[in-house]
Write a structure and sequence with these properties.
Layout: H1 5-17, H2 21-28, H3 32-43, E1 73-77, E2 83-87, H4 92-102
Length: 103
C-alpha cells in the first residue's frame, strides 16, 4: 500500500480533534469517502500508528535440525542374531520382499 503523507496527517489531526469524520471533512474541505478510506488503511496497518517507527533487523535462517524422535534408520534383529540396519527411505514393498526372503 502506498503511504500518502497528506492523508495520514489529516487522519492524525482528525483523531486529535474530537470531531466526527463528517464534521472534520466539511471543516477541511475533504472528500469524506476518500478520508474514510485512509482512516481504514491507517487502522489496518500497525506500522502507521502514532509514535511507531519502523526498524529493520537482520535475521539468519538455518535449516532445522532433524527431530530426535524421527528415526533416520530402522534396525532389524532376526532370531538368529543377525542385525540389519536400513534407511527409513526404503520402500515398504521392498522391505516386505526382503523379509520374505529372510524368513
Amino acid at each position: 500500500m502506498k503511504i500518502n503523507t497528506h492523508w495520514l496527517l489529516h487522519v492524525e489531526a482528525w483523531r486529535e480533534s474530537g470531531l466526527s469524520q463528517a464534521d472534520y471533512c466539511r471543516q477541511q474541505g475533504l472528500n469524506r469517502k476518500t478520508f474514510s478510506l485512509w482512516t481504514r488503511r491507517d487502522q489496518g496497518n500497525p506500522s502507521m500508528d502514532r509514535g511507531t517507527s519502523l526498524e529493520l533487523i537482520s535475521v539468519q535462517v538455518s535449516p532445522s535440525a532433524p527431530v530426535a524422535s524421527t528415526p533416520v534408520s530402522v534396525m532389524l534383529r532376526l532370531a538368529n542374531g543377525v542385525q540389519l540396519e536400513l534407511s527409513t527411505a526404503v520402500s515398504p514393498g521392498w522391505l516386505a520382499k526382503l523379509l520374505r526372503c529372510l524368513i
